[in-house]
């Protein structure tokens, strides 16, 4: 995989909308995911109580995050896990590289990890002569095709079985073309098992880290995560700071919300809880476990009382599945690691508005994401604030590059709009002008772009005030 490049969001959207196969694949997959989630949460009242509990647990953890991180480090260290702190992705990558070099590892097998995508770890290791193999089936497919994930939970959601069959035939030597799902899975298993057996180092993400016990919790369905964390001699776990929980008793409600929202399951096939390296007398497990705690802008997000709600996210991906924008354009159009509604609020805060602020414009503000979010993140409200900070450099602005879209022409237009709606005389003049010449305005320039996908408004010849006045109704 390659590091991110400068992207043209508008062009990406146009390209995605013209791809009929992509849109069909996304629509079919999303319908299934939405229906599975609905079926696993049939009781609306129970779901709302569970969401409130999940929100409270995560809020409590964020409120005492510095103390919980210190407690996590202390308990992990006591258990034999080596803890590393990384302020940014460059430092995190350097730590991973140092561990690999100390063990003379030329390859690493990887379980699914969005933080490693955030680090662009595969590309970084490749430049240092180390091969990183994705072992999650979806990640494996797109890695073969030199792509990045299109979805947080289902990386290859944009591919159908025909496309997967063609990728396997082209990229895996001596592989016949087959569209049979069982045969495709067997082909991937054959390749991956060989790599599991010889790899010295395995890498994974972390779904939750429990400060009380120093435990790393990972959920998965394929068993590859367990192979990455138990077969190699060394296990490296990478984790964003916000994944820490206070107590082990906090896990069940969040696990229920995560699995139900992500894949429509009561529980995933595997729930892995890692508390130490292999102990004396044990027959499996790594001899070393490393935990890398990545900040990468999270501390700054935490410092803002409103924006810190972004860090409540448990990476279930259900906001993507219900988003009318994501469902039509897919994850690659967003041009960054985190797509969909959560990406629209997280990425601009991590990378700045000038680089990623345009993502906040790709929303209808319909509220579907907030309605289904298992931890009740008010995503539309945060999108609105990001839009406001793109133009406003006032005292409340906290995101990097605030005001980058501010310009004199728009400022004057909105000032005129404000005056027209606060000064009665100007309002009357404006409505009369609109009635007289509104329908005669030329359909060129910005107006043509606006009306290309919208019906142009029809202006009445007389305002409501004029009409009721003519009827003898007192205008107050």
Poorly predicted sequence stretches spanning 5 or more consecutive residues: 1-5
Percent of residues in β-strands: 5-15%
By CATH, the topology of the largest domain is Rossmann fold
CATH class of the largest domain: Alpha Beta
Q: What is the share of helical residues?
A: 40-55%
- Mean pLDDT, to the nearest integer, reads 93
Backbone structural class: alpha/beta
Q: What would you call the shape?
A: globular
The DSSP helix count reads 23
Q: Give the neighbour order of strands across the main sheet.
A: 1-10-7-4-2-3
CATH homolog superfamily of the largest domain: NagB/RpiA/CoA transferase-like
**What value does the Rg take, in angstroms?**
26 Å
State the end-to-end CA separation.
Answer: 66 Å
- Let me know the largest β-sheet: 6 strands, parallel
CATH architecture title of the largest domain: 3-Layer(aba) Sandwich
Number of domains: 2
In terms of quaternary structure, what is this?
single chain
Number of strands: 10
């Amino acid at each position: 995989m390659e590091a991110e490049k400068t992207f043209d969001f508008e062009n990406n959207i146009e390209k995605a909308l013209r791809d009929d196969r992509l849109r069909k694949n996304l629509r079919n997959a999303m319908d299934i995911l939405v229906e599975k989630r609905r079926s696993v949460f049939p009781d609306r009242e129970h779901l709302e109580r569970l969401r409130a509990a999940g929100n409270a647990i995560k809020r409590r953890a964020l409120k005492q995050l510095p103390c919980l991180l210190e407690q996590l480090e202390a308990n992990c260290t006591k258990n034999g896990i080596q803890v590393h702190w990384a302020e940014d992705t460059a430092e995190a990558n350097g730590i991973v590289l140092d561990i690999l070099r100390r063990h003379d590892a030329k390859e690493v097998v990887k379980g699914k990890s969005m933080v490693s995508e955030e680090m662009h770890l595969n590309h970084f290791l490749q430049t240092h002569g180390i091969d990183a193999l994705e072992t999650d089936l979806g990640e494996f497919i797109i890695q073969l095709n030199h792509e990045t994930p299109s979805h947080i939970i289902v990386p290859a959601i944009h591919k159908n079985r025909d496309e997967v069959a063609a990728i396997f035939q082209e990229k895996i030597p001596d592989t016949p073309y087959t569209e049979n799902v069982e045969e495709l899975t067997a082909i991937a298993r054959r390749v991956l098992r060989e790599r599991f057996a010889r790899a010295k180092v395995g890498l994974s993400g972390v779904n939750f880290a429990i400060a009380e016990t120093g435990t790393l919790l990972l959920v998965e369905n394929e068993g590859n995560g367990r192979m990455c964390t138990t077969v190699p001699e060394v296990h490296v776990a990478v984790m964003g700071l916000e994944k820490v929980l206070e107590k082990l008793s906090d896990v069940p409600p969040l696990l229920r919300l995560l699995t139900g929202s992500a894949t429509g399951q009561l529980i995933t096939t595997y729930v892995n809880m890692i508390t130490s390296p292999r102990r004396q007398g044990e027959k499996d497990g790594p001899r070393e476990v490393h935990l890398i705690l990545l900040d990468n802008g999270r501390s700054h997000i935490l410092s803002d009382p409103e924006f810190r709600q972004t860090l409540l996210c448990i990476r279930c991906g259900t906001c993507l599945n219900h988003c009318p924008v994501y469902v039509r354009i897919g994850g690659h159009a967003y041009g960054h690691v985190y797509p969909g509604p959560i990406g629209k609020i997280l990425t601009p805060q991590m990378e700045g508005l000038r680089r990623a602020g345009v993502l906040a414009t790709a929303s209808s503000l319909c509220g579907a994401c907030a309605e289904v979010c298992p931890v009740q993140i008010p995503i539309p409200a945060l999108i609105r604030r990001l839009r406001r900070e793109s133009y406003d450099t006032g005292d409340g602005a906290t995101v990097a590059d605030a005001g980058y879209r501010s310009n004199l022409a728009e400022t004057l237009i909105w000032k005129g709009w404000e005056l027209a709606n606060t000064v009665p005389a100007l309002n009357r003049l404006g409505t009369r002008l609109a009635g007289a010449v509104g329908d005669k305005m030329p359909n060129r320039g910005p107006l043509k772009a606006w009306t290309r996908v919208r019906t142009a408004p029809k202006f009445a010849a007389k305002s409501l005030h004029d009409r009721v006045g003519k009827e003898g109704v007192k205008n107050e």
